[in-house]
Design a protein that fits this description.
Layout lengths: L1 E6 L3 H10 L5 E7 L10 E2 L9 E4 L6 H10 L4 E3 L7 H11 L5 E3 L7 H11 L6 E7 L3 H12 L6 E12 L3 E2 L2 E2 L6 E13 L2 E8 L11 E6 L2 E4 L2 E7 L2 E6 L1 E5 L9 E7 L2 E5 L9 H17 L9 H20 L3 E3 L6
Length: 344
């Protein structure tokens, strides 16, 4: 059994200890909070009061670097919530102080979400040839950058960013808290950016306020390759001489109609090729829960020396550095270049 303590008590922290309770090989031994309160897990006010195998930080952006440092100073591996630091100066300072320790991972879960994991498997299997452009209109900042870099397979090199913002009326029927019951259109800002990674590889970033929850905006994922294209849950590709094939990525979901195996995700497949298989059958978790539980299990495996690092600090820092460049380019209207950072 691999143990962890979570620092924080908000909704994200709650997801970590709740998911761990359902995993047979990972245990949350408590939450570290400033002010003692009643929680479903044991409560501590300092990391000195317990000795877990690793620490999960689930705190606001501004507090994350200091909490990460506290754990590293005690020799504890860290799974840091995104982003690891709020701005470029603090990203660089955090790397300078902790980068050489190799103790810090980042809880960037988007590439582990079942739909994204299936798409990524299709791209890495070479079904559309060499990927050259990724378009993401789904999530914001570092998460979107992680998806773009992941699908392209690019490292942590320089990036040239151009961006604009527009504002238009949009009804916002849903938030994290649920239905708003407000049908009045209100101003919503859309940020669109192009990312040039060099060697013909590029990304398109497109995000509208509250797009995570607002179901009036489609999510769009496009990966353009040398031999075809992936668009959301469909692939078109050159399969042979004079042979262009078009096929859907199909999710097998149990629990419908006369299927009595309970509601659950089983697989995502392209024809006979299974691209994703749910590693937690029977839990009936949503996609976000599957991704986070996968991240927890991979972190535990890495801590035990049985698996690769799940998402190193260098990658999480680079995602956010590029995301900050998108914001700067949109704010100023100027082209922003991300030079080679110290973690490259």
């Amino acid at each position: 059994m691999t143990s962890f303590a979570v620092v924080g008590s908000g909704w994200r922290a709650e997801m970590f200890w709740r998911l761990a309770a359902a995993l047979p090989d990972v245990e949350c031994v408590g939450a570290v909070v400033r002010t003692p309160r009643e929680l479903p897990v044991p409560v501590f006010t300092s990391l000195d009061e317990l000795r877990p195998d690793f620490v999960v930080t689930a705190v606001p952006w501004a507090a994350n670097p200091s909490v990460i440092m506290e754990a590293v100073e005690r020799g504890l591996p860290v799974l840091a919530e995104t982003p690891p630091a709020p701005d470029e100066a603090k990203l660089r300072a955090l790397w300078q102080l902790t980068g050489d320790t190799g103790l810090v991972q980042v809880a960037e879960q988007y590439l582990l979400v079942p739909a994204h994991a299936a798409r990524l498997a299709a791209v890495r299997d070479g079904l559309i040839g060499e990927p050259a452009q990724v378009q993401v209109s789904s999530t914001h900042m570092y998460h979107a950058v992680s998806l773009i870099r992941g699908y392209l397979g690019v490292g942590r090199g320089p990036v040239t960013v151009r961006a604009t913002r527009t504002t238009a009326p949009l009804v916002d029927p849903l938030t994290r808290a649920g239905w708003t019951d407000d049908a009045e259109p209100r101003a919503a800002t859309t940020t669109i950016a192009t990312l040039d990674f060099g060697d013909g590889r590029s990304g398109l970033y497109d995000f509208t306020d509250n797009q995570w929850h607002n179901q009036l905006r489609f999510r769009r994922i496009v990966v353009r390759g040398s031999h075809g294209e992936l668009q959301n849950d469909e692939i078109v590709r050159l399969a042979g001489p004079r042979t262009i094939l078009r096929a859907p990525l199909v999710r097998r979901q149990t629990g419908y109609d006369l299927d009595l195996d309970d509601f659950d995700t089983d697989t995502i497949a392209l024809g006979e090729r299974v691209l994703f298989r749910n590693p937690f059958p029977g839990r009936r978790w949503n996609d976000e829960e599957i991704a986070m539980a996968t991240m927890l299990r991979r972190m535990a495996s890495w801590v035990r020396g049985e698996g690769p690092p799940p998402y190193p600090l260098a990658d999480g820092a680079h995602d956010h550095l590029v995301a900050l460049a998108i914001e700067e380019a949109a704010d100023t209207g100027e082209t922003v270049t991300v030079d080679v950072p110290p973690w490259s």
